[in-house]
């Protein structure tokens, strides 16, 4: 047997079954039929000359051979993903493409067009590609390399891995259903909100989740979590549905105040900071040129 006998698809199938220990769930995860997945696993077992799984009425378990293969399968697939990403970045660097990640539109009085204008004036040959990334990734694609630069909220998870320039510092408002008793007030103090259920960001970014729950303003009192949100639409629906309230940057308030939701100024919490970030070890000229363009609007650099 040579290394070319085994395909990445075979290892992904093995890894899915090894992690799920259930053929049907693994097939659903891979978007293939269960018989097709079983056939792939049997073919891999024949190729390796040993069974990878024990199958009986009690379920599925790794054999000693499967257990031995597991860390190497993970390493091979991780290396391939890293290689694929390196090729993508090299290809885009060669044709002058810069991928700009974001989880919500920067908006803010023409911030993005202003940065783009400064950047393209200095680098007319470059091509910008916008990439929207879900709130589950607080780095907006920087951490896994799908974005070259990204608009993010601070604090940033794994801060030592990144550099950034703050492009907007905004007060945090509280968003709440217009039927909420506190909505009748023109201004609120955060102390009035301590017992209210709050909507929380995904825990994949604990620092940012804590920031929008204002843990530093709670005096050690834990927040009451009414629900988890991963997009502006989910936030709006959760607010209208009465699941809780949330803090929102002033520049993002229009994303939520569509009807049935109001925002109010709130005292006792620090401002939010919106930044353009890039990986600390990224030395590519286009990345730093975009950062300089952002710094033209920036209020703080790190």
Radius of gyration (CA) equals 24 Å
Portion in beta strands:
15-25%
Integer average pLDDT: 90
Element-level helix/strand string: HHHEEHEHEEEEEEHEHEEEHE
Structural class of the secondary elements?
A: alpha/beta
Q: Largest sheet, described in full?
A: 6 strands, mixed
Distance between the termini: 52 Å
Number of strands: 14
Descriptive report:
35% of the residues lie in helices and 24% in strands. It folds into 3 domains: 3-90, Winged helix-like DNA-binding domain superfamily/Winged helix DNA-binding domain (Arc Repressor Mutant, subunit A, Orthogonal Bundle), CATH 1.10.10.10; 95-168 and 273-301, Periplasmic binding protein-like II (D-Maltodextrin-Binding Protein, domain 2, 3-Layer(aba) Sandwich), CATH 3.40.190; 172-270, Periplasmic binding protein-like II (D-Maltodextrin-Binding Protein, domain 2). Helix 2 crosses helix 3 (34-48). It has helices at 8-20, 23-30, 34-48, 64-94, 111-122, 206-212, 232-240, 285-295; strands at 53-56, 59-62, 97-102, 127-132, 149-154, 162-170, 172-177, 188-189, 197-200, 224-228, 246-249, 261-267, 272-279, 300-301. The termini are far apart.
Write the layout of secondary structure elements.
Blueprint: H1 8-20, H2 23-30, H3 34-48, E1 53-56, E2 59-62, H4 64-94, E3 97-102, H5 111-122, E4 127-132, E5 149-154, E6 162-170, E7 172-177, E8 188-189, E9 197-200, H6 206-212, E10 224-228, H7 232-240, E11 246-249, E12 261-267, E13 272-279, H8 285-295, E14 300-301
Parallel strand pairs: 3-4, 3-5, 8-12, 9-10
Antiparallel strand pairs: 1-2, 5-13, 6-13, 6-14, 7-11, 7-12
Helix pairs in contact: 1-2, 1-3, 1-4, 2-3, 5-8
């Amino acid at each position: 047997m040579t290394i070319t006998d085994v395909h990445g698809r075979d290892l992904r199938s093995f890894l899915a079954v090894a992690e799920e220990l259930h053929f049907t769930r693994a097939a659903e995860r891979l978007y293939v039929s269960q018989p097709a997945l079983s056939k792939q696993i049997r073919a891999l077992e024949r190729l390796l000359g040993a069974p990878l799984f024990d199958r009986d009425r009690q379920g599925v378990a790794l054999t000693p051979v499967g257990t031995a293969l597991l860390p190497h399968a993970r390493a091979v697939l991780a290396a391939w993903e890293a290689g694929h990403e390196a090729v993508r970045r090299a290809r885009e660097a060669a044709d002058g493409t810069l991928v700009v990640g974001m989880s919500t539109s920067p908006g803010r009085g023409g911030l993005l067009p202003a940065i783009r204008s400064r950047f393209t004036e200095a680098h007319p040959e470059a091509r910008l590609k916008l990439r929207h990334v879900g709130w589950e990734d607080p780095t907006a694609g920087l951490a896994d390399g799908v974005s070259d630069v990204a608009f993010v909220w601070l604090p940033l998870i794994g801060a030592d891995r990144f550099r950034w320039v703050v492009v907007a510092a905004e007060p945090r408002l509280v968003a709440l259903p217009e039927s909420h008793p506190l909505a009748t007030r023109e201004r609120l103090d955060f102390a009035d909100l301590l017992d209210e259920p709050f909507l929380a960001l995904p825990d994949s970014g604990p620092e940012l989740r804590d920031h929008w729950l204002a843990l530093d303003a709670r005096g050690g009192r834990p927040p009451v979590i009414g629900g988890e949100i991963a997009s502006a639409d989910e936030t709006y629906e959760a607010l209208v549905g009465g699941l809780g309230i949330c803090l929102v940057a002033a520049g993002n308030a229009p994303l939520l105040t569509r009807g049935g939701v109001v925002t109010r100024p709130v005292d006792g919490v620090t401002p939010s900071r919106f930044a353009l970030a890039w990986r600390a070890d990224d030395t590519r000229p286009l990345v730093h040129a975009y950062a300089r363009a952002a710094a033209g609007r920036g209020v703080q650099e790190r």
